[in-house]
Write the structure tokens for this entry.
Amino acid sequence: MQIYVESLFPTGVMIIDNFIDEHECDEILTYIRGLDMHQKDDTVPVNAKSSFDGVTDIVKEVSKHTAVDDFYDRTTFALNEYANVIGQPELKLSNSWSHIQYEGSYVVDHTHPNSKVSGVLYLNTSKESNNLIFKNPNPYCKIDAPVNGTEFNFTINEIPVGNGRLVMFPSWLEHGSNYNINKTQGRTMISFNSLVK
Ligand SMILES: [Fe+2]
């Protein structure tokens, strides 16, 4: 007798550690902190600001205005490494923005409309930083109360964050902080969306 379990419909999330090194991280942080177009963002309604409505292509701006001049190309390359894994055609960045969270903020659960793949690069985190929390897109996982937790009944899944870590995911996959309150002062990220090239 042979017994085995197949995982039939997994959702791929790509994590790239050290996407930028410590020095590059500092360069980009300094640039972002100097931008004056960060505004209130409905996705992070309290104690946070974002360039979402101001600089709509922060990845390109970082390439232009910092020593990390290959940042746009590097990000596009990583995006397409992931696109290949999930069977998407060649993608291009469509918009990107920076966001800064202060203590007491939280990220409302959301998806990224009008985008194929989204990503978030962590620039300033701490040991206290909340994980990035994804919701299980399979509604049936919630129907029967499980007696023990397995990968087949998780309603959420968490990705720890860290400086220089890039996380890419399908734009339809709901995510947020699950109402966990941010304890990192100046938690800073760059996020991006993409479309078919
Ligand atoms: Fe997001």
